[in-house]
Each structure stands twice: as C-alpha cells, then as structure tokens.
Fold:
Amino acid sequence: MKRLRRAVFLLLPVLTVLLTACAKRTDVGGDDSYIYSLNTDRTGLVKITFEFDEEDPLEQAEAILKEMKKPASEIEYTTVFPEDVEVAECEMSGGILTVDFNGAYLRMESLEEKLVRAAVVQSLVRVDGINAVSFSVEGESLKDGDGRTVGLMNADDFVENTASSPSAYQTGTLVLYFANEDGDKLVAQKMDVRYSSNVSREKLIVEKLMQGPQGGDAGPVINPDTNLLSVTIKDRICYVNFDSTFLTGAYDIVPELTVYSIVNSLVEGTEADQVQITINGESDNTYMEAVDLSRPLEEDMDWVAAEDDET
Structure:
C-alpha cells in the first residue's frame, strides 16, 4: 500500500504536466483571460487564452501586440500580423491608445486588414484603462478605402450583425437638442427614426445632430462640413471623435450650445453618463475658445430653454 501511495504521489506532477499540455489555448472558458487571434485560413477571429500580467495599460498593450506577432503554437489559430507588418510605437493619451505600424501594414488586402484591425482593437480594449484605439502608419492616421480617417475604434465598431437579415432595421424615438431661434438656448426635438441594426444608437444620435432639426423653430448646431470619425462608449463615457472642422463654428449661436447639444443628447439617449469630445483622437482642445474639451463633460440642462421661453 505504501508503494502504491508513493507511486501515485510521484505520478501526480507528471499527470499535471500532461493535462496542461492537452489544454488548448482556443478552449477559452467563461472565467479565462483572453485576446483575439485569426483562424487558420485567416477568414475570421478566434479567442485564445492570454494572461494580462502587466499592471500599466501601455505595458499590457505592448505585451499583447508582441504576443500577436508570435507564431501560433496550435493549428486552430494563426498569428495575427503578417511577417512583414511591425508595430513601430505605442502611445497613451488619457484612455486612448495609438498604435503606429510600419508601411507594410498598408500592403495587406482589405479583408485581411479589417480582420487584423478587429483582432487588435478588441484585444486591446480589454485592458483596463484603454477606452479606444487609434491606428497610424508611419506617423500618419490610418485611412479607409475612401480616403477618410478611420479614427478612434472600440469593440463596438466590429460587432457583427446577428439579425436574421443583413438589412434588418430597428425603430425608435430620439430626444435631440438643437439651438433656439435666438441662438442662446437649446430646445428639445423628438425624432422618430428607423435605422440599420449595424448602426449603434450613439452614432445615430450624433449623425442626426449633424443633419440638423426637422423643421420647427429649432436650428442646427454643428458645422455641416464636419466629419464624424468615430463614436464609442466604454465605462459609461461616450467618446465622440470629429475632424478639425468641428472646431470652426458655422452658425451665429453661443458656442456652448454646440457642445451641450451633443452631450445632453447622448447622455439622455444612451447608457453614457459623460461625453468626451476629441479632435482627430486628441482631447487637448478648446471649442471656439469657450468650452474646454480636455475632459469628459456631464449633462448640463441649464442650457436648455424653459418651456415658457420656447416659441
């Protein structure tokens, strides 16, 4: 009996090693820490186990990107980055991580590039402290096939449409804030909308604000030449990223109306408690020398006209 117990005791470490060796990285359980990789034929994403050992968000991001460059250890997945694609630099600004690649990034085919981008972004935003990710190539902001800046990205930008039809639509009612006739207060306007299931509610709200009000005594608030680069929500903060045209007012209204039309509409219409407005991914900006955009802003209903004041 003693010999049997001794044999079992000696075998336990061996069995532990064997069981560990049999566990596949693609067998991700509900409590497992993971990142995304590409499947073997590079047509989709797959989760693989990965421990977030670093405490600093930037160091964690660098560790993830280094892992994505390693050759795959199992046949169920493949390395994310093509051999010639390299990460040149990573920088953190607030909760925004910018990843700069070498020129080989632009030589990827469209489908592969989108999958690589989805794997990278969805992995990096899992890090506490990283709210959104921006890509650049040799210092220049990444642009899509139409030449538009891709801007900030979050996991929501890569959610697949799971509806029964690719053209499935949702309906709803938005409460949006526009300028009154005097240009010194905001007025609410209810808008019934029908929109694609692929469009997030927060993006829809900003796009409708940019399009302007539907008649009545309300007036537009956002420069019509502005380009919306991205809208994402994380940790109850909505990040709205415009190009630099946003900073140029186009209407004779109080500057605060433009900013708080966005903030109030998003806080009222989404799960966000605050809104961070960025310009080309940067938060160190001031709107019309009047509103500090360097920090997330809360709803401010003092800018909304009382019902008795509305005409």
Remarks:
- Residues 2-22 form the longest helix (21 residues).
- Helices lie at 2-22, 57-69, 110-124, 201-211, 255-269.
